[in-house]
# Entry
Amino acid sequence: MLKRRAPSVLMKKNNQPETTRLSTGRISKKIKRNDEIYQNDDSNGGGEIICIDSSDDEETRARKENKIRDNSEPGMQRLHQLLEQCTKTLFEKAKPEYNAWIKSVLHKPFVMPDASYDGHSETFLQMRYKSRDPMPLHDPKAPNAVILYTPPEYDEEFKKAHKDDIEVHVVVDPVLGRVLRPHQVEGVQFMFDCLTGRKIENYHGCILADDMGLGKTLQCITLLWTLLRQNPLYKAGPIITNVVIICPSSLVKNWYNEINKWLGSRLNALSIDSGQSSEAVDEKLAGFGRQQNSGRRRCGNPVLIVSYETFRGHANVLDNIEVGLMICDEGHRLKNMESQTYVCLKKVNCKRRIIISGTPIQNDLLEYYSLVDFVNPGLLGNPSEFRKMYENPISKGRDADASDYQVQLGNDRQKEMIANVDRCLIRRTADLLSKYLPPKVELIVCSKMEPAQQAIYEFFIKSKKIQRTLSGSQKGKNKGGQSTLQAITFLKKLCNHPQLVYEMCTRGEEIFEGLEEMFPAGFSKSIRNFEPLWSGKMKLLDSILANIKKTTDDRVVLISNYTQTIDLFQRLCDMRGYKWVRLDGTMTTKKRNKIVQSFNDPTTNEFIFLLSSKAGGCGLNLIGANRLIMFDPDWNPANDGQAMARVWRDGQRKQCFLYRFLATGTIEEKIFQRQTHKKALSNCIVDNAEDVERHFSVADLKELFILEDESVLSDTHSKFDCKRCVGNEQIEPPPKEADVASDLADWHHCYSPRVIPDDKLSESWDRGNVSFVFYQRSCKVQS
# Structure
């Protein structure tokens, strides 16, 4: 019978302890190297000793284990069952993962041997402590080391005479260096050179203008961590002691999470979310300031993350500190030199500044000047000097009536300005992502309106009020900017769904006179009576979502410029039983982060992410989805570009499909054409009457109010004079080197569903009133 015994110690022949015996329940287990020894104790302290040797075959081992269990009490039997279950779990789940980890650790790319390396066995850290010579923080000879600065070679005489002037390597922390891609290493190097004055003497700022998805945040985190910890001058402290990151409120938490993701406990950031009381914000900022003025080389929270709005309202709290580095994310907000935000940030005592913007402003020269002057004051002169030197000659050179001399002078000054600015601005396009991400397919889908929808559209643009408005503009009288804006908004919403304009038609305003009668009796503006069949694009959306849901586990991001349209999306999801989450301008930052995290979690059951383009266009990472639908176009191509970059970015594991829906022959195609031909100013968002008159000529306005004939499959394609298409068929493929960045003329032109590379869209072609599709890939899909 088994009996509990106190733990004992086995003795070698020389009476020295060999192994310890551990008692568990009624079975005493002795651990001796790789063997397992069990003793069945009897009442006299004796009993049979059963040894499970590491060399036993499976049958012998099983027999011994069964014998041990037979002598066990029921409680021990349950324990052994539990141990068996744990062992099974270990080998079925953990072992493959562990082996994969081992394989990844052991795998090292071939590195050309360094002849100067002496093969010393001590670690670099030990060498640093023992060496009498100055040494860098990280090993510059380590495999794949990212070296930002290499010092000159010193002879012994110089070292003795100039001890305080010795410089060392600046090497990126390997924790970050090993994850950087080549273009990110280039970006970190460029910014380091700019901020240390090596690019332009006496100037210490730069603009990081990479496309969306290229890892601008990681590049900046790598740079700030390097500057906070290192300095080429060995005897000096780190280059900076603090960093202030200013960003849109929706990105404050994202910056905090990214710093924690890459650096963990190495760097503690202080983030100030929106929604806190003014007193609480002042206290946090004051605490940050006290840390910086304490005289310590390193402080508890060297990084402050705050929104533009919060900083603008509380900047005076930081008046007495010197900021080592200021990073302005989505920095195109600083394009207006006279804005309160610009003036407030310009006053901050900080010489090292970085603007991050995926959409640099280049169409308006003064806006361009504002950004450059913010990071490097005086590089392009003061505003009056800039106008005289660059703006006026360049503008005159672009005039249609310019002389040959003016054209040449304008071109020369433009080249001079660009060459000057390129020393502090770096920009790479999203083409680089094709090397690292799954393929992306972009599809521009033209969908014809439903008959009733088209009838309302035609009635409106042919109405006397619209004709008088356009006629008055042509004569220079009664431009009617507000009426024009109303009309444009009406047509854009009508393209989405007639229900969005029904209330406008019932107001009794002259511009909408007679439109209420175009709706059937009993038509209601209530969202409860929403019917997708009233809109061609909504039918297409309904069909494609059903096809995606039926046969895939893909998730979808659904974007519109109008919250009313998002309300209809929400109703459609409820009608079809789709699980959805929604993000618009009414949501707090805390709640935004929560729903984004939930949507990206593959274990949750959300199918659709409803997104307002204005609220979620910047910085959101929605890699939980691999399909994105832009339901309506924006006047500003940068806004659409920002919104469409939410899914095809780092972390994405599936092939992505990005759809743009356009109502065939309508104002939506006209807007899209302005984007593709780059006729719109990059900041042109039509939101008031002044903008309408300022940005649109009479000819432009007339063009907007034309509905193309029903026979036109795509107004955009018809304006190409396409040589590759004959008789509604593409007879010649696009150039092999073409991709999504190419002109639409070099995309695939599809007149039927059989050539579409997405079967979900092909299956929805007829039901969704599809008339034409442009498509192109980010790279060639492997067959």
In short: The first helix runs from residue 58 to 70. The longest strand covers residues 17-24.
